[in-house]
Description:
The protein is an alpha+beta fold. The chain contains three helices and three strands; from the N terminus they run H-E-H-E-E-H.
Amino acid sequence: VLSMLHYFETFHFKKMLAEPNANNTSPNKTLESLGFRFLEQIVTVPGMNKVEQPINRWEITREEFEKKWT
């Protein structure tokens, strides 16, 4: 949470996105508990040396963050 606050304040982010592997439940649960909203699940190749895999796209705005954490 402190890292998120630092990024919002220092870099003036309006929102943050996260895209963990859809099959990895731990980061998906963590993002939800931090206040991120689930946007969609897509299948993509996340890097040059990676294989196609499903990812979940999560988002939190600065306003959503402040409402939950301040």
